[in-house]
Amino acid sequence: MVNSGAALDLMFHALADPSRRAMVNRLCRGPASVSQLAQPLAMSLPAVVQHLQVLEASGLVRSEKVGRVRTCRIVPTALRTAEQWISERRTSWERRLDRLGELLAESPEEPDAQE
């Protein structure tokens, strides 16, 4: 995938901010309006909207406006993309560490140094 790196960059950028992570955590429990997302945060409503725009640009969140209320929802497949990337790195390092452990288990022990 040509754009997967750029998409992953946007996602990790979006998740780098604690306020946006708090919004994602809240949305994992179910849809919420912008005002509901703003309630626990110590920031203005326009600032919350800016954070939501970053989350939407990353693909983590979708919103729809009905009347005067904008409702936001998490996009689970977007989270799976980040999870898969992290899992691939973890698997690679686990294999390397397993090989190192096997190598260390096979190497002869050094004799104790005599004083």
What can you see in these coordinates?
The chain has 115 residues and is α+β, with helices and mostly antiparallel strands. The chain has a domain at 4-77: Arc Repressor Mutant, subunit A (Orthogonal Bundle). The chain has five helices and three strands. A three-stranded antiparallel β-sheet has the order 1-3-2. A hairpin with a 2-residue loop joins strand 2 and strand 3. Helix 1 packs antiparallel against helix 4 (45-58) and helix 2 (18-28) crosses helix 4. The longest helix has 31 residues, at 76-106. The mean pLDDT is 88.
In brief:
This protein has helices at 4-15, 18-28, 34-38, 45-58, 76-106; strands at 32-33, 61-66, 69-74. The protein is α+β, with helices and mostly antiparallel strands and 115 residues long.
Strand order of the largest sheet: 1-3-2
The CATH architecture designation of the domain at 4-77 is Orthogonal Bundle
Q: How many beta-strand segments?
A: 3
Task: Average the pLDDT over all residues and give the rounded result.
Answer: 88
User: How much helix, percentage-wise, in residues?
Assistant: 55-70%
The count of helical stretches stands at: 5
Q: Given the C-alpha coordinates, what overall shape results?
A: elongated
Cα separation of the termini: 61 Å
Residue windows where pLDDT falls under 50 for at least 5 positions: none
Largest sheet: 3 strands, antiparallel
Give the C-level CATH assignment of the domain at 4-77.
Mainly Alpha
Based on CA atoms alone, the radius of gyration comes out at: 22 Å
The proportion of strand residues reads 5-15%
CATH homologous superfamily annotation of the domain at 4-77 = Winged helix-like DNA-binding domain superfamily/Winged helix DNA-binding domain
The computed structural class is alpha+beta
SSE string, helices as H and strands as E:
HHEHHEEH
